[in-house]
Amino acid sequence: MAVGDTPDWPGIAEGLNFPSEAAMWKSLYSQFTFKQLSRRFGVSGPCIAAAMRRAGVSSNRGGLPKGTRRIKMTLREARELQKEGVVHAARRLGIPYPTLYAQVRTIIRAAWKRRQERAQGSQRDGQPQ
Question: Do the domain assignments include residue 85?
Fold first, then answer.
């Protein structure tokens, strides 16, 4: 394929036994990253992203790494897990360490940010902290 040529994505999808190009992208993107797909098809990551957009398939994973799942927990639970040690807690719960660490960090940072915003709001209103 020459530089600038776009692969025949509908033909590729058909050759891989997918009912449509969109079905192909949904399936492949649930299993592989852009980098892996670009290597597999011999094109750039942006080429993969553009093809997915044209097929109407979202490439937004909500800012989470591939394979990461959200874990619902309260601030209190996040602090308890942090005290216990996130690596130890992840092993105990059977959850990948990066998943648990990211969630605990996100919850604690959000709480800290809310606290800072409240403190700044109180200072602007002339109220003591």
Answer: yes
Phi, then psi, of 40 in degrees rounded to 5:
-60, -40
Indicate whether this model's pTM tops 0.85. Answer: no
**Residue 38 DSSP symbol:** H
As given in the structure block, the two tokens for residue 115 are 């606290």
Residue 95 inside a domain? The answer is yes
Instruction: List the structure tokens of 94.
Output: 């059977």
In the chain, what percentage of residues exceed pLDDT 90? 24
Burial class (CB in 10 A: 0-12, 13-18, 19+), 38: middle
Strand runs (DSSP E) across the chain, as ranges? none
Asked if residue 70 belongs to a domain, the reply is: no
Q: Are residues 79 and 120 in the same domain?
A: yes
Q: CB within 8 A of 84, min separation 6: which ones? A: none
